[in-house]
């Protein structure tokens, strides 16, 4: 988890904000689906 976090921090400045926003949207949708079922 810490390794993924450091990789995330390292990747952010390189303009991959759109990718991470999509990832957050997918994670939020999955969370909603799981909480509803």
Describe this structure in words.
This protein has helices spanning 2-11, 17-36. The chain is mostly helical and 37 residues long. Keywords: Membrane, Transmembrane, Transmembrane helix. This is Integral membrane protein.
Task: Find the structural class using helix and strand composition.
Answer: mainly alpha
- Write down the overall geometry: elongated
Q: What is the chain-wise order of helices and strands?
A: HH
The percent range for helix content is over 70%
Keywords: Membrane, Transmembrane, Transmembrane helix
Transmembrane segments: 12-34
Protein name: Integral membrane protein
Organism: Streptomyces viridochromogenes Tue57
Précis, in short:
Keywords: Membrane, Transmembrane, Transmembrane helix. 81% of the residues lie in helices and 0% in strands.
Outline the fold blueprint:
Blueprint lengths: L1 H10 L5 H20 L1
Keywords:
37 residues, mainly alpha, 2 helices, 0% strand
């Amino acid at each position: 988890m810490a390794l993924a976090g450091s990789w995330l921090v390292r990747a952010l400045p390189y303009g991959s904000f759109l990718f991470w926003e999509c990832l957050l949207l997918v994670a939020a949708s999955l969370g909603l689906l799981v909480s509803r079922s």
